[in-house]
Amino acid sequence: MLPRQASVDPESRQAAYEFVAAMLKSSGTWAQAGHVPAYLPVVESEEYQALPASRYADVTEILNYDPEAYFSGSGSNFQTYFADNIQTVLLGRTDPREGMTGFMERVDSLLLQPNPAAPAA
């Protein structure tokens, strides 16, 4: 999904689609590092099937997406706050309940703030 824009330039949008398509079509390169490709022709290719990581390609059937919110998504505050709080749990420095509570408190503070992209009421 491309970011929302108030004014869309058709040429820029087309260029963005072409870029995303090129990334998907070349996702075999990412697969060599263990990533699961999202493009079915790559997933079904002999090259991908020969990789050790291909045995967990079916994880795409159980994806969990971030909730829809202005602060969520890849590289977002939501992801950063999760990493800040949960990484210490994974490293054994923080109790799991404490880590999750810290994450929830930070997200709750974001939920109380208005969406900066929403039109003024």
Characterization of the model:
- The protein has 121 residues and is mostly helical.
- It folds into 2 domains: 10-59, no CATH class; 64-115, no CATH class.
- Helix content is 48%, strand content 0%.
- The protein has helices at 10-25, 28-31, 40-43, 46-49, 77-90, 96-111.
- The longest helix is centred in the N-terminal third of the chain and has 16 residues, at 10-25.
Short account of what is shown:
With 121 residues, this protein is mainly α. The chain has helices at residues 10-25, 28-31, 40-43, 46-49, 77-90, 96-111. The protein has six helices and no strands.
- Count of discrete domains: 2
* Apparent shape: flat
Structural class: mainly alpha
Radius of gyration: 19 Å
Low-confidence stretches: none
End-to-end separation in angstroms reads 27 Å
Please provide the ordered H/E string of secondary-structure elements: HHHHHH
Query: Would you report the number of β strands?
Result: 0
User: Largest sheet, if any?
Assistant: none
Helical content (DSSP H or I, runs of 4+): 40-55%
Tell me the fraction of residues in β-strands, as a range.
Answer: under 5%
Output mean pLDDT: 86
Descriptive tags:
48% helix; 0% strand; 121 residues; mainly alpha; 6 helices
Mind sketching the topology for me?
Blueprint: H1 10-25, H2 28-31, H3 40-43, H4 46-49, H5 77-90, H6 96-111
Helix pairs in contact: 5-6
